[in-house]
Specification:
about 120 residues, mainly alpha, globular
Length: about 120
Amino acid sequence: MISKNKAEIEFGGEKRTFYFGLGFLGLFIDKTNCTLSSLESDIQTNPFKVLPQLMYYSLLYGYLRKDDTPPFTQFDIVDWMDAEGGVNGKGILEFMSGVSSSMNPKLPVSKSVKKKVTMPKV
């Protein structure tokens, strides 16, 4: 299930909590030197590097919030991705959907109000 800031996704043989939002993105950018503006092109250029990093820091963020040590490494993430069929695996696609949703919020659209304009009589 995906909510605004996190998702429970079956990955690596168990349900895992992936975090989205400011904390995760700040950690990811800090550790990888990727920029938010280059993220989409970086994913397109080398998804085999960037997607495991995104998933790793998203999972890691949840452990850091609890001041806990994660029971996995970046290598585990890659192995789990391979086991799911690579970058098009179900868990990976769910994760990317959550990342995309968190970065592109649907803002409410205000209805424009049309005023009837009357011209002054001359």
